[in-house]
């Protein structure tokens, strides 16, 4: 039996409350401020909204002047996926580098400092960490965003990250439940499918999420993936079996459940964003992430109207929507109560990210060491960036190496002729070839073949997952492409 809506205003406010939308620009538009007054409880920030920490602090102050308890969310993993430092590259290595070091105290310290910087900018909800076990080496979207391919390692570092970041008063959102690591498709583009039995999932993919729940993560993000062993019909984001029966029931999780971006093709291309939103809330999700691609008032109106109409049509129980909205408000109460004071600056550890990047660096030498003693040519073999990482954040070693060895030059290369083009551009200068996931890109491996055949003194820097054989006169694996990873590599190359 369907319960009728008690009051249109209450229903509409609840529908707005469960949305976590983005917007365009570096100040809040009028429509967003108006919606905050009407019930919207969360706002999402993306790279397009950020120019500096000071600007973000002014923006979040503008939002809180309209609604003091608004949740301000961001996708700030550190490493390759950074929004706060989208123009410069991150001051923190990502998960894969932290997993390579395997010091949970360091992971906790990195997360605490990143959380402190987010809190100082007025951000109190972070869609991180990724708890995915990167069991598929050809995974196009997780890779260095994962702590690694070992389940226990991923679990202990996920828990450390949650503990560290939440110590700074920033709620974590552990993702992508029930685990996006064994996929060969990016859910931004299509629906991935994981075909393993339930025992494998329980012993591999679910373990880090159990660790996150035990560590007190305030939110969990669902994945747009089909896992037939758990639900043969619906992807996780839309599956009651996965979100309610498994996550809430079997795993005992009682916090906020957030969807991955509802406009991603895995959902939008299959169900549409309105239908996907209704099905997600009905399945047990409490908040709908939207705004990475759709960031206008019309999207907010379409999704809130879809929820209201679904309740009125008896497709979505009003109690389920009200429960979801209350979970959002509960998280807002937690972040408001845990908002750090001015004394938080006294706990800053500004160098922890660089220290971690240096510890993550792995150097392999073939024969006699041949370090750089004069300006080099940095040939960056650049793959197409996945949407989660984006293509606006600089990466590589050229900028940092140029600072240490002035006169260093660089170029970016891609495709079948990349190796020959790099050789021609370098001339007689020593070549530093920078790659990213060489094992996933045949053209990249072929380019290195060309370089090393002609110039065996070439240095190779791998800034992705280092699965390909180490080769070159020197081979450096940074385990990520954050700015500090590039600096750590440059220091090693220049001998400083």
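Q: What amino acid sequence fits the structure above?
A:
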């Amino acid at each position: 039996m369907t319960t009728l809506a008690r009051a249109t205003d209450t229903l509409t406010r609840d529908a707005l409350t469960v949305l976590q939308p983005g917007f365009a620009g570096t100040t809040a538009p009028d429509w967003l401020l108006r919606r905050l007054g009407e019930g919207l409880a969360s706002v999402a920030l993306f790279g397009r909204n950020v120019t500096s920490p000071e600007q973000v602090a002014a923006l979040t102050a503008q939002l809180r002047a309209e609604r003091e308890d608004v949740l301000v969310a961001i996708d700030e993993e550190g490493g390759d996926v950074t929004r706060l430092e989208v123009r410069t590259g991150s001051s923190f290595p990502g998960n894969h580098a932290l997993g390579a070091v395997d010091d949970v105290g360091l992971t906790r310290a990195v997360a605490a400092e990143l959380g402190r910087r987010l809190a100082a900018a007025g951000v109190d909800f972070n869609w991180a960490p990724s708890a995915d076990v990167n069991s598929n080496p050809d995974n196009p979207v997780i890779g260095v965003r994962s702590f690694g391919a070992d389940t226990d390692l991923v679990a202990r570092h996920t828990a450390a990250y949650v503990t560290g970041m939440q110590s700074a008063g920033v709620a974590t959102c552990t993702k992508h439940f029930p685990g996006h690591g064994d996929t060969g498709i990016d859910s931004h583009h299509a629906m991935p499918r994981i075909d393993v039995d339930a025992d494998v999932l329980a012993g591999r993919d679910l373990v880090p999420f159990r660790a996150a729940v035990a560590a007190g993560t305030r939110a969990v993000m669902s994945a747009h993936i089909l896992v037939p062993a758990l639900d043969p019909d619906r992807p996780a984001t839309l599956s009651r079996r996965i979100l309610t029966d498994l996550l809430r029931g079997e795993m005992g999780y009682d916090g906020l459940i957030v969807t991955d971006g509802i406009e991603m093709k895995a959902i939008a291309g299959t169900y549409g964003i309105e239908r996907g939103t209704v099905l997600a809330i009905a399945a047990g999700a409490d908040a709908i992430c939207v705004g990475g691609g759709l960031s206008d008032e019309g999207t907010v109106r379409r999704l809130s109207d879809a929820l209201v109409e679904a309740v009125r049509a008896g497709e979505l129980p009003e109690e389920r929507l009200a429960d979801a909205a209350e979970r959002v408000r509960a998280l807002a109460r937690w972040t408001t109560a845990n908002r750090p004071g001015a004394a938080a600056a006294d706990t800053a550890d500004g160098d922890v990210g660089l220290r971690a990047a240096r510890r993550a660096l792995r150097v392999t030498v073939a024969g006699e060491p041949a370090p750089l003693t004069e300006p080099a040519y940095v040939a960056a073999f650049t793959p197409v960036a996945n949407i989660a990482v984006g293509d606006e954040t600089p990466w590589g070693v050229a900028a940092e190496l140029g600072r240490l060895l002035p006169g260093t030059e660089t170029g970016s290369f891609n495709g079948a002729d990349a190796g020959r083009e790099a050789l021609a551009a370098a001339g007689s200068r020593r070549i530093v070839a920078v790659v990213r996931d060489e094992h996933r890109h045949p053209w990249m491996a072929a380019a290195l073949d060309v370089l090393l055949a002609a110039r065996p003194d070439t240095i190779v820097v791998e800034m992705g997952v280092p699965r390909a054989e180490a080769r070159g006169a020197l081979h450096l694996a940074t385990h990520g492409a954050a700015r500090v990873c590039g600096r750590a590599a440059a220091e090693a190359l220049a001998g400083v």
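Q: And what stands out in the fold?
A: Confidence is low (pLDDT under 50) at residues 1-8.
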